[in-house]
Amino acid sequence: MGLPAGWVTDVPGLSRTVQLKALGNGVVPQQAAAALRHLAARQGPEARLGRAA
Question: 0.85 cut: is pTM over it?
Fold first, then answer.
């Protein structure tokens, strides 16, 4: 997620359920960015510039 190690898991008194709830969908933006970079790398220069083939 890009958070420092222990950001949620080293907080005293939080159950695993509460830890997972606190993290929520935080991984989604980084995964989406990685997917877009991967797809863009597979396209030709025209696609990266937003031009139709």
Answer: no
